[in-house]
Fold each of these.
Amino acid sequence: MISGAHVILYSQDPEADRAFIRDVLDLPGVDAGGGWLIFKLPPAEVAVHPADGPTRHELFLMCDDLDSQLDEFRARGVAITRPVSEQRWGKVTAIRLPSGAELPLYQPLHPTAHSQ
């Protein structure tokens, strides 16, 4: 039986991104040894989309109220890297990690599987 999922973010500055996830996103975690932090994620779901080119994988953090979440991030000095885009499936944007990478964030407007 599948008991969970393990997501890997590759980073040019893993220490800074780990500190951001711990201190700014407030995700609890464990030290797997030597300061190698692994974070607990909120409930998750997986979707399979068609690919027009090479296959790839994406990670989006989800929130219930995107506008409030962005206000909280701005108050903490987090850079919002994309204007909020309203799609039929949700409202989407992205934030900047300390390494410079973007982390997409969205508020789903579709039924969610993780609450089932």
Amino acid sequence: MLTLKCPYCGVQAEETELHAGGEAHLTRFGPDSSDDDFETYLFTRENPKGVHFERWRHSHGCGKWFHAARCTMTLEVFGTYPAQTTEPPQDIRDAITAKRPGWTWREFS
């Protein structure tokens, strides 16, 4: 079972206490955006075999959204951090690089 630590209240929550919210670090487009930008936002998602950044909500706890870095193959969690963060903290990137030497952070659009 997947267990994530909420960065706000500090609780180690099982996935049954959380609600998945999809890929993290996406640029959201408003009503005045082009059709192409909005289509990309709606339908273009990463689906990696390996390290992935996701949004989660501590729905049966503090109710706040946060981001998690984890491996989709092994369910290994590299860390969690507040949803207002625009990119993963350096310590999480270092933890990923230590276990996955060829991994690099990509710029999100």
Amino acid sequence: MTRRLADLGGLAALVLALGLAASPGRAAEENDYPTDARVDYVFACMAANGQTRENMQKCACSLDQLAAILPYDKYVQASTILSMRQGVGNRANEFRSTKVFDDKVADLRRAQAEAEVRCYRG
């Protein structure tokens, strides 16, 4: 039993030495996207880029990078704005012509561009 605990202690030290243990705040920030949102993103990405295993891996990478850059609540806000902009009428026009909404969408677009560079071109 003592040897087993010592082995586990050594494993924990190795993980820490390799930098695989993120601080709790950072891990929470990067993993705040719920599973269903992650799956929806990857499915939509694959629909746009092709239904191959390689594209699935790139799309998953892209989402991981996006999640590291943009908190989930900001992703939801920007996605909602983009969805509302597809409508017609005064309500949709409000979402198209408001600077605050433009800024939220721009944050999402920048994060997506960075994720694309890291996962598709890097």
